[in-house]
Design brief:
There is one protein chain. The chain has 249 residues and is an alpha+beta fold. It folds into two domains: 63 residues, lambda repressor-like DNA-binding domains (434 Repressor (Amino-terminal Domain), Orthogonal Bundle); 129 residues, Jelly Rolls. Helices cover 24% and strands 27% of the residues. Helix 2 packs across helix 4.
Length: 249
């Protein structure tokens, strides 16, 4: 039988007497190790962080300045010698402009072609909601979970026809391709945008698009949202959302 190294400690009973107890020696305790699956996850995280940093042309020193984390910490994370906490990941993502989608995407879920989407007018799809006719270019691209480009004709002539003011997550840019647009915001006077006019705003502000002229105004609209704000899932593509809208015709 193998001998077991032990250490002896003395405990004091409630009656005041002392007793010896045997405990396994600290040198014989099994070391704590991360499970294989956990190591694989942190390896992939570190690998993607390193690839992103290198793609940006940043040294560990520059990345340290950008994230506020020590170089040694970044190096250990990249080399799978340290499992980053969520707060550390947030600093890395913010400092290196690294999206959650890029960080956790499955390697086999995308190909190099997924990074580029080309669309011609004959392949556009359209959707109609009361007051708007939407053209949805690039609706099948994975990138629409982060950046959603739309081209739409504003048919509505009043807030009621437009369905009232609504807000949603993201930063919104609109550019008037043709016609005259009246852009409404909650508790603010409407803004009139002629052809060539544009606006950039926080789209959580309740807003609505109304045509000011006799003809519909055509607008290019781009909404950007960091997937992190949507708990890592990215924004639901507009084409999917409007199909569930009660305002759809």
């Amino acid at each position: 039988m193998k001998s077991r190294s032990v250490t002896t400690s003395r405990r004091i009973r409630t009656d005041g007497t002392k007793t010896n107890t045997e405990q396994p020696s600290p040198t014989n305790r099994a070391p704590w190790r991360r499970e294989v699956e956990a190591q694989d996850v942190t390896h992939k995280l570190g690998q993607r962080i390193r690839e992103h940093r290198v793609a940006l042309g940043l040294s560990l020193n520059r990345a340290s300045e950008a994230t506020g984390l020590p170089e040694a910490t970044l190096s250990r994370i990249e080399n799978n010698k340290m499992a980053p906490t969520f707060s550390v990941l947030l600093k890395i993502m913010s400092g290196l402009k690294l999206s959650w989608q890029t960080l956790v995407a499955r390697p086999d879920a995308r190909s190099p072609d997924d990074d580029i989407s080309i669309m011609t007018p004959d392949k556009w799809t359209t959707e109609k909601i009361a007051g708007y006719t939407y053209i949805l270019p690039h609706s099948s691209s994975r990138l629409v979970h982060v950046v959603q480009p739309l081209i739409f004709d504003v048919d509505s002539r009043s807030l009621d026809e437009a369905g009232g003011l609504t807000g949603h997550q993201g930063i919104e840019f609109c550019y008037v391709i043709s016609g005259t647009l009246k852009l409404h915001f909650a508790d603010k006077p409407p803004q009139v945008l002629p052809t060539g006019g544009s606006a950039l705003f926080d789209s959580t502000l309740p807003h609505a698009y109304v045509s000011k002229g006799r003809k519909p105004a055509r607008v290019l609209n781009v909404v950007v949202q960091d997937p992190l704000l949507a708990h890592g899932e990215g924004k639901t593509p507009f084409g999917e959302r409007i199909k569930k809208s009660p305002r759809q015709r």
